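Students often ask what a 'structure token' actually looks like in practice. Rather than answer in the abstract, let us consider Oxidoreductase, short chain dehydrogenase/reductase family, a protein of 451 residues. Its sequence is given first.
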Amino acid sequence: MPIPIITTAITEGTNSIPHLWSILKLLPWAVILAALKYYFGGARNTSERLMHSKVVMITGGTSGIGAQVTSALASRGAQIILLTQHPATDIFLSEYIEDLRRSTNNQLIYAEQVDLSSLHSIRTFATKWIDNVPPRRLDMVILCGNAAPPVSQKRKLTVDGIDEEWMVNYLANFHLLSILSPALRAQPAHRDVRVVFTTCSSYIGAKWDLRQVEEAAAITAAAQQQQQGDNGGGGSNGDGRRVVMKNGKLQREKAKPKAAKKAAKGVSLYGLSKLSLMVFAQSFQKHLNAFKRPDNQPCSARVIMVDPGFSRTPGMRRWLTGGSLWGLLVYLVTWPVWWLVLKSPQQGAQSVLYAAMEAEYGRGEGGWMIKECKEVDLARKEVKDEEAGKMLWEFSEKLIEVKERESAVRRALANKEKEVAEQMEKNKASGSSSSGAKEQTPGSRRSRKGK
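Now compare that with the structural description of the same chain:
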């Protein structure tokens, strides 16, 4: 088409081309818009890797960036294990997996139920995974699970009484990898094993203070308790007390009543959760490197941190809209702006795919930071600080120990109550059936004879 237009302009003059000058006026703006879109789209992954027979475990692999990573790796032949909060029998999850198998021409895509907001669910799966002889093959763990609730919404606690944002973004990954660590270390020395952490640039401005986690949980628990009290209910997900660390031990203190007033919005722990995740990533690499293999070979597992950039994922959309209809309306009106400055999920997945496929990261000591498909320096000194890593590791272990013990007691009491209720129903049913049978029992022989 351009050739006939040029020919017409030469032979018949430019006046013969309709709207030519209007098009020429708009052309520079179109070029600028295309250049901006290309710039904000970020770098493209150009690395390739043979993924056939590779076993890849992915969290957050059903939406957003995680879904694009899953699709890309599955199309290259990798065996995918999706960790989802829904059971494998869920109809929507089953249809999603079937569609993914069909679109990638890969039948080796499975799902395991792992609720990242539940310590018990994580331990159940991870323990089952490592309880196998010989050790199961595991080539890669990609952690894309993320929680970013709008700041305007009330904070939530998990079933274990932990702030949901901090639990999903950090503590769930710590708990999962701590248990899976033997499986990663047991892989053959020649195997290229990678653990990919997805983070966010918000870690740069985060305040390194773990007391925020305790305060957020205490404030939220107190608010929930007060709200249920106002509604005439009793009990809560938390007990209104906070967990604090004193002299290296976790202790429980009663929360102040006025703390409940601050719980409506709370302080965002998103930046702290991402900073904690990166501090743990460095500590986990040192933990893997410190392991002495029976064959005296170096550890084959390497940790890689990735900042995929800001993308138009469902989580980002929910954060921008504030979780409200008015926010959604504003988002729809301003959508061209977000389309321009935010990456698509596919573009956001490029750095993650680069970390998973680049051959260079199959060698070395690990602990790299990737952004825009290239290695970058860390912006916070705490990430490589051994004291910060040790403090975070001990804090996390003790917090998990306390919360798992409390949750175990609650589950035992709930099971006991369930058993008592079932027994009462059973006794009631048997009592009613026996009384009915008694009414239908015929009289004695003498009474029948008298009749």
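One point worth highlighting: The first strand starts at residue 55 and ends at 59. Ask yourself how you might have guessed this from the sequence alone, and why that guess would often be unreliable.
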